[in-house]
Amino acid sequence: MARDILIVDDEEDIRDLIAGILEDEGYEPRQASDADSALDEIAKRRPNLVFLDIWMQGSRLDGLQLLDLLQADHPDLPVVMISGHGNVETAVSAIRRGAYDYIEKPFKIDRLLLITQRAIEASKLRTEVADLKEKTGGDDSEIAGVSSAIAQVRSLIDKSAGTRSRVFISGGAGTGKGLCARLLHLKSPRANGPFIEINASLYAPEEIPVVLFGRESRDNSSLRTEVGALERAHGGTLYLSEVTQLPADAQTALLRTLVENKFTRVGGAGPVPIDVRIISSSSQNVAGMVEEGQFRSDLFHRLSVVPLQLSPLRERREDIPALIKVFVTQLSRMHNLPRFHLGDDAVAVLQGQDWPGNARQLRNAIERLLILVRDLRPENGIITAAMLPPDISEVLPTIGDTDSSAHLMSLPLREAREVFERQYLIAQIERFGGNISKTAEFVGMERSALHRKIKSLGL
How far, in Å, are 78, 121, 293 from residue 127 at the CA level? Predict the structure, then answer.
């Protein structure tokens, strides 16, 4: 994916030289001769990198002043200073003020290209690190599970990732919509571009236009720009989570952007062209919202070129063991915990839960479990069903009262039925104070039959 680079220098020959070198390597250079034209170019669309001359004759701001302004408005925008023979010390000073690096005239092509590559990669890495703060720190390279539903999801992602088609992901909270969006990006030709995620439900309606489209304002005749999500995602992917929460005016503006591939910032004077693939999702009943007029049908149809439906975890319990392994690995690494493993009986108990919060709820339960058992030092590192917290293991009773008791979910039907009958009858006999006649009447058995059952169970 080509990268947008702005070259700011008062000497046209220098600009043309750098632009020619960068074009030969597949970059997309733009040029500006002074500070004001540079700010205008940045207002049109924020570049991925700026080459900035320290001294610019006839410019309202010199390179250092412009650097300070860029640092204030775009702190994550890498700037490489262009230095002449007599001002290397000034260039070094600029690095202390936030510049990424400097190149010295006359240029060495290898150094120019190396700095360009490193500056863009460093910027990309900073974006990824910021994004990873909200993630688990684990391997999101694939979706865990063996169910046919997950197999269909993988297939659809593989088929659509390499296209430009917009994908709309439906599914309840915690089903993995964000992971699917990220995989669509990572498996696409845009994988080296930015992946920007915006959850519309986290913002007030009046904030959404600025969050999406950015804002322009004038300050002492100087144009100040605030970059929105669409512009930050240029050349990559924008993931709009809970897109149905967009207010009506933002829906209209987004629809226009999808049609024209350009948008206007809030308070802006001109359009900003973009190349962005949009993936969106919702946990709501979108069809119902469209029917009730809460979400534009024309916008939904443009976003949902490829629909992707995620099933709730209770409908694909066979995926739970694979999810548990992934979560244990991720969380052990994140919390620096010993590498525990869940025994078959514990996994069986977890498979018996409904998990209304889906995979997210399961992950939270695993995280709490790993922290709780950290000091218990399970034998061979295996967490048994008896170690599960009561609110997780209450699906069915354990065989006995000791810590080593197995769980009913881990037994075949015949043995489990025997365990249940024993515990049930013990509880009923105790309830009626050992009176077999009253117990038999309540449980619906003949007194003699109950005696035989008690004897066979060894009670």
Answer: 12, 10, 37
- Asked if 101 and 115 count as a contact pair (C-beta separation under 8 A), the reply is yes
Q: In one letter, which amino acid is 129?
A: V
The C-alpha atoms of residue 260 and residue 273 are separated, in whole angstroms, by 9
Residues paired with residue 120 on neighbouring β-strands, in sequence order:
none
Query: CB-side exposure of 171: number of CA atoms within 13 Å?
Result: 29
- Nearest-CA neighbor of 279 among 187, 177, 140, 155? 177
Residue range 39-98, pLDDT digits in tens: 988 888 889 999 999 888 888 998 889 998 898 888 888 999 998 766 667 877 888 888
Q: Which helix (H) or strand (E) holds 145?
A: none
Nearest to 93 by CA among 84, 85, 102: 102
DSSP state of 202: G
Going by C-alpha positions, the residue among 108, 110, 102, 121 that lies closest to residue 1 is 121
Neighbours of 33 (CB within 10 A): 19
**410 membership: H or E segment, kind and range:** none
Are 225 and 43 within 8 A, CB to CB? Answer: yes
1 CB-near residues (< 8 Å, 6+ apart): 189, 190, 192, 193, 235, 236
* Contact present, 244 and 289 (Cβ < 8 Å): yes
pLDDT in tens, 293-332: 999 999 999 999 999 999 999 899 889 999 999 999 888 8
Residue 48: φ, ψ to 5°: -85, -20
Residues 6+ apart with CB under 8 A from 382: 340, 341, 342, 343
For 199, residues 6+ apart whose C-beta sits below 8 A from its C-beta are 241, 242
